[in-house]
Amino acid sequence: MDFMTLTVQAGVNGLVIGMMYMLMAVGFTLVFGIMRIVNFAHGEFYMIGSLVAFYTFAQWEVPFVLTLVLAAVCVGLIGMVVEWLVIRPLRSDELTGMIATLGISVVLQNAVLMFFGASPRAIPDVVEGSLHVGPVVFTWSRLLVIAAAAVIVGGFWLFMQKHKLGRAMRAVAQDQEAALIQGISVDRIFPLAFGISVALAAVAGALMAPVFAVSPFVGTTPMLKAFIVVILGGLGSIPGAILGGLLLGLIESYGATMLGSVVADILQLALVIGILLIRPSGLLGHREA
Amino acid sequence: MRSLALALSVPVIALGTAAHAETMTIGLVAPLSGGAAAWGSAMKGALELAIEDVQKDGGLKVGDTTYDLKIAAYDSHYKPNDAVTAMNRLIFEDDAAFVVGPLGSAPLAALVPMATENKKITLTAGFTPIAAAKEYPYSFRAILPTEVYAKPQIEWVVKNLDAKKVGGLFPNDETGQAMVNDLAKAYEAAGASFPAQEFYERGRVDFVPILTRVLAQGIDTFELDGSPPQTAGLLVKQLRELGFKGNIVRTGGDATPDILAVAGPEASEGLYVHQEYDPSLPSAVAYEERFEKAYGGTMNAFSPGFYTSIMMVFEAMRETGSVDDTDAVAAAMSKISDFEGPAGKARWIGNDYWGTQRQLFVPYSIGHVTDGEPKVVATCSPTRCE
Q1: Which of A59, A84, B25, B247 is an S-S bond match for B221, by CB 3.0 to 4.6 Å?
Q2: Chain A within 8 Å of B298 (Cβ-Cβ)?
Q3: Chain B, nearest residue to A259 by Cα
């Protein structure tokens, strides 16, 4: 393989994984921006999204687009219930709320382990075959991830910019008290934000399920990467999560392809440390007043 | 419900019922949750089925005493600290007669010295030489390590698959680093080279970038040994997605059901896999059916080896007429040979490797995946596969 081939192949590989990180990180940072909670169970909602894909797409042969909608709706509703039952009573204490999400993570993972078992299950590709451009190979299933993630994040961006509820969420994130004075009900916005956040994780899980596999533990790595991405992009910043996700995916891919996986991991974390030293609030984050 | 119970790390599960007999507790330290839960579940299932069989005959008769058997099971989470905590409880609270586990080199290295000090037989599964070392005379290993199976299998792979240039990915830890050295030496001794060696952090799911790097080195054979079952499945899938048409082999650590589950039958077609035993044996088929009926899902191939080892401890106890004289039981156990188990005739080996006789051996095999099923193409002794 020549250098140009490796460069193109690594670029597409990086975009695929970067899109997944981006979807995870956007939801993760949304909850932090609005509710000031680090949701440690975010990876488990990703995992439940992949489970929904397993049952609907692989078992019941539901069209994949409908599978994505079902994953988002089901997990979004579960998220709203979780917010109402567990997080709302602890809203006054951020630390306790975070510990509660850690508990939710353990409960969800072990509940799925009990009913689904530890063995991983495969999901057939949504689109079979590969695109060969000279010596470079792109599987259609991975290219689909790039396209679908771009559409989903684009839709989410429009919602946040144009829709009344999206604007209300941004207002709450900017200044909760001012938003209250403007007549925005924080009690309505919090569960909605939490539901949308975990729905995005679920869509990422459902999208990636045919590319990887489904098991109770698939959410662990994306969750860790989402952490890195939001720190890189700026905690609470949605554009930062988009930029950070893509950047991390590309660094990971180019680093691993050109220098090996271990060096790539070192590079990623060195970059995060470097950025935090230069810009402590992250690439697109704002310094707290 | 049984599969549900198996997945939970319930501390104590009592199986004995007869009131007149004495009770013997058998400990279990295994990963019952997390990524290695499939292995832990296989160990726990083996112990439960072995006890079920003994209880069916009225309990374990040793000398004049009949013992009702019960299990004290702890989740090691595949971590040394948790394994040591569990062992403390098993020794000082549960008074376990012997212990099934731990699994994994790091938990094993942490736990075995304590087991030795307190004279507890352990039936372990970890590739570290500590598992069969002279200084730990009660440590028995139920699963074959790379050190034993690498040479004969790799000689077969190089000769029969014409492997010349081999590549592989390994976990970036002590296990992976040790394994790549063993494998590289074995491939070189067999006449092939192993130039493409890469490492990854455990938990990673996207290997396409590293595989692109490995394939760029023009390998003709990819070695899967060393990666956990789910990871091995992802590697097969992603290798085929990248258009790799060479040999994919796994010369150790049976992971075939998980590889097939993750990669799918199409990507797995033509794969050469290590099998802990000959799965076509009627006794192996019957055991697998029994296990899957009891617990659902697919059975990990570690289970029959553990079932056999547990039954061999019982046999040694019956032979010596003692459950407390650990030295006598361990000595009697290492002499047992031609013991009929679900995976075939079992015996203890190890003198040639570690100067001890505490490594379980049942003839293992190489399978060739055809139409989504591994078919046995060679059976192996400790010295050769044919």
Answers
A1: B247
A2: yes
A3: B213
Place of tokens 């079932």: B307
Q: Which domains does chain A have, with CATH numbers?
A: 3-278 (1.10.3470)
Query: Which residues make Cβ contacts (< 8 Å) with residue B289, sequence separation at least 6?
Result: none
Helix (H, G, I), strand (E, B) or coil at A122: coil
**Could you give the residue ranges of the DSSP H alpha helices within chain A?**
3-35, 42-53, 64-82, 94-116, 140-162, 164-174, 176-181, 186-208, 220-233, 238-259, 261-278
Cβ contacts of B81 within 8 Å, gap of 6 or more: B110
A257 close contact with B: CB closer than 8 A: yes
Spell out the residues 6+ positions from residue B18 whose beta carbon is closer than 8 angstroms to its own.
B58, B59, B66, B68
Domains of chain B as residue ranges with CATH: 23-144+281-349 (3.40.50.2300), 146-275+365-380 (3.40.50.2300)
ipTM over 0.95: no
Instruction: Give the model confidence (pLDDT) of A259-282 as tens digits.
Output: 988 888 888 888 888 988 998 888
Query: In this complex, is the C-beta atom of B234 within 8 Å of any C-beta atom belonging to chain A?
Result: yes
Copy the structure tokens of residue A195.
Answer: 């539901």
For A193, the token pair is 């934000």
- Write down the pLDDT at residue B4: 47
A253 and B233 within 8 Å at the Cβ level: the answer is: no
Residue B68 near residue B18, CB atoms below 8 Å: yes
pLDDT digits (tens, 9 = 90+) for A92-120: 787 888 899 999 999 999 899 888 877 77
Do B263 and B250 touch, CB atoms closer than 8 A?
no
A262·B172 Cβ contact <8 A: yes
- Which residue from B100, B203, B81 is spatially nearest to B143, judged by alpha carbons? B100
Number of alpha carbons in the 13 Å side-chain half-sphere of residue B314: 23
Tell me if chain A has a CB within 8 Å of the CB of B372.
no
Judged by CB atoms closer than 8 Å, whether chains meet at B233 and A1 is answered as no
The pLDDT tens digits of the residues spanning B218-263 come to 999 999 998 888 889 999 999 998 889 999 999 987 788 888 888 8
Return the number of CB contacts < 8 Å for A and B: 117
Task: Tell me what percent of the residues of chain A surpass a pLDDT of 70.
Answer: 98
A215–chain B Cβ distance below 8 A for any pair: yes
Q: What is the pLDDT of residues B288-340, one digit of tens each?
A: 999 999 998 788 899 999 999 999 999 999 999 999 999 999 999 999 999 99
Confidence of residue B6 (pLDDT cuts 50, 70, 90): very low
Which residue type does B350 have?
Answer: G
Cβ contact, residue pair B212, A10, below 8 Å: yes
